[in-house]
Amino acid sequence: MADWPRAQHLFDEQLQTDWPTLLADLTRRCNPLSGYLDQHAPYYWTTVQSEWATDILFHSAADLSRWYERWLQHSVLVLNCRDSLRFLGQRLPEEGFYPQFTGEVKGDLRERREGRRAKLW
Looking at the DSSP assignment, which residues form a beta bridge with residue 111? Predict the structure, then answer.
C-alpha cells in the first residue's frame, strides 16, 4: 500500500455514500428496462453479505514472524468447531436456532512449501 491515508479516506467516503441513489444511476445506465421497472416494480436494494475487515499491518516479515507461531497455536489450541460455525453464520443444535447445522466441521494445521497454515472449514 503506497498511500494509507488515501486508502482510509476512500473507506470513510463509503460510509457517507448515498448507495440507493448511486446504484439507481448505475441501473439506469445498464438496464434497458429500468424506466419501466421504476414505475411498476422499483428496485429494492439490500445487502446479502457485507464484510468489514480489521486487518493488522506489519511493516516487515520479521514483525509478522514474531506473532505468526502464536496465532497458529491459538487457532489450533483455543478455537473450536463452535467458533468456526459462528464465524460461518451457522448455529449448533443446542443453541435453539433453526435451521440447525447438520454438516461436518474440520480443522487442521499443515506445513506447506509456502509455510505453515491453520485452516477451519
Answer: 116
Where b means 16+ CB within 10 Å and e means fewer, 79-94 reads eeeeebbeeeebeeee
Tell me, what amino acid is at 10? L
Q: Is 67 helix (H, G, I), strand (E, B) or coil?
A: helix
Q: What is the mean pLDDT of residues 83-95?
A: 71
* pTM of the complete model: 0.42
Q: Pull the grid cell for residue 9.
A: 479516506
Match 443444535 to its residue by C-alpha cell: 93
Please say whether the beta carbons of 96 and 90 come within 8 A: no
Kindly state the cell numbers that stand for 62. 520479521
> Which segment of 20-24, 58-62, 67-71, 93-97 scores lowest on mean pLDDT?
93-97
